[in-house]
Design brief:
It contains 9 helices and 4 strands. It is mostly helical. The protein folds into 2 domains: 22-233, Cation efflux protein transmembrane domain (Alpha-lytic protease prodomain-like), CATH 1.20.1510; 238-322, Cation efflux protein, cytoplasmic domain (Alpha-Beta Plaits, 2-Layer Sandwich), CATH 3.30.70.1350. The radius of gyration is 26 Å and the shape is elongated.
Length: 329
Amino acid sequence: MRQHCDDTSADQAVGLDCAPGVAAARHSSHDHAVRAGADQRYLGIALGLIVAFMLVEVVVAVTSGSLALLADAGHMLTDAGALAGAIWAARLAARPAQGAWTFGLKRAEILSAAVNGVTLLAVALLIGNEAIDRLLHPVPVEGAAMLAVAGVGIVVNVAATLVLARANRSSLNIEGAFQHILTDAFAFIATLVAGLVIVVTGLERADPIASLIVVALMLRASWKLLRASGRVLLEGAPDHVDLAEVRQHVLAVPRVLDIHDLHAWVVTSDLPALSAHVVVEDEAFRDGHAPVILDRLQRCLAEHFDVEHSSFQLEPARHEEHEAAVHKS
């Protein structure tokens, strides 16, 4: 149970040179810039690995007639696109806020994650359709070629996965690229097993069966990305923020009477935001205590709910009659 924000010993004087959290916010901003640069380097390394191997795999897939290898190559093409898009989105998100873009272009990362989810879904449907057709009408496949390419592919994708695992996966943008690479690593394992089965038993249907396993993995990754990015784009509250609990904390602050028009959303993966109208005692405006209440509310959100971007409108009880619409949330 979280402690409510009603500790009067935490009051701070108005007019401090540096308000609570300012220094931390500056440090956090610097850390984010450093981390973003490192993430782009990790994405670039993974992109180089994937593109180099993809070109080799396309040649072998065409010469061997393996759908599983061609499916892997197609998935790796989307991997390359996902990584390139993630790098581009990360660079856009790093641009400072200006003009009409009051939050900068931070949501470019969310759009990139959504695109990754859509591409995974599209490729899964295409491969699934072809796999079912080949399952019903098998075609000759060179199992030895599948084994060789899949073995190298596992090494390449595991290397790319390990590189991206060092990046900040709390970012949906990074997570989208990571899911592409991870599912491809599993796809190569399935292809390796299919190639081994074909070499040992001659069962050509092992190739489309492996492809269907890849499809299942793609659909799972796609659903996770689309659900997470959709929640952000549709202005859903952050997963870790319980609005009922926020309400309890706010009402526990001395001299706060009520709260309404409470809204919480996510600007981008690591930037939750919250706003609300807070009704306080009339005397708080006359005796200069309103700034202290505001300070405590913002500190409460930062410390208890990890929400550093909060906006509160303090208003006296009589102000409610002047509001056209009040959202009691």
